[in-house]
Amino acid sequence: MNVFFWAGCCFVIGIIAGFYGCRQISPKHIAKSREKRNPLRSEVAGHERHDAIINNLSELANNCLINDVMIPRPNIQALNLNEKPEVLWRQITAYHYAYLPVYEETLDRIVGVLDLRDALRASTLSTQGDNHSLRALLQPAYYIPSGTPLLKQWEEFRLSGQRLGLIVDEYGELLGLVTPGDMEHEIASTLRPGEPLASVHCALQNEGLTVDASQTLRALNRQIGSDFPLDGPKTLSGLIIEYLGKIPESETEFALYGFHITIMQTRKHQVRVVKLRRLPADKVKS
Fold first, then answer.
1. Per-residue pLDDT of the chain (286 residues; tens, 9 = 90+)
2. Residue 182's domain spans which residues?
């Protein structure tokens, strides 16, 4: 197996250790007490969970790309250096991110990345009303080629210390943004293999489940047990638009991949919120 797979394994083991270290009661003690009650069930469940984690890590190593976890371009929050200082200052104090890309006029003209903690410490915009002082705080932008394997890029982040990457295609066009935290969340989700929660199943079978259509299809497949294809659009919004061939209006309803889908909200060129309800087996087209 390649080095990125083993890097992912080590990362997951580290997370497990971290989780256990935060507990006041020893997990070993809990595990032993459960084994005493039903050792056979405990052993089988342990093997199944172990196999699921390894399978998921293998998928990450072989199939998951940086594009699968990036924040797509339309959802990027960034600062326009051409804005008035007071506008920029309001944005800086309102955002809950540690780093933001900074551009001039359009996102195609990125001039750097701002560590918001540096801006807050300097307070140059609020006290001096000077955009040039903000420019002096910018760090060089860090670009990542589209299609880079997720675990490979996670290792690059770890070695370089970069905290934000901009994904670009072969022509240099900005496609999205990713942070180490985004990737670690995806990798850590392999610690939760198995079936979706019973409440999710119940909602999907009955009244329907409202979801954010900007979520990746990979994440939805894992969270709700769907079988959306992963070889085309990366998000549910993209899949819906590709299927319909247009931006749908609110209240549009249709069937897709075993689900009855109702469009709840659209904005600009994206589907924002949808309701999913699983179709009965006899209603699903083969």
1. 455 555 555 555 555 444 434 444 344 443 444 444 455 444 444 555 555 555 555 666 566 788 888 888 888 999 999 888 888 888 888 887 889 999 998 999 999 999 988 877 776 555 555 677 788 889 999 999 999 998 889 889 989 999 999 999 998 999 999 999 888 877 776 555 555 667 777 888 888 899 999 888 888 888 888 899 988 888 899 999 999 999 999 999 999 999 999 999 998 788 999 999 999 877 766 5
2. 71-186
Percent helix, strand, coil in the chain, to 5, is 50, 20, 30
- 236 sits in the region (left: phi over 0; alpha: psi -120 to 50; else beta) called alpha
**Are 75 and 171 part of one and the same domain?**
yes
Q: Tokens 């659209």 label which residue? A: 266
* Torsion sign (Cα): 25, 29, 35, 38: negative
173 and 103 in one domain?
yes
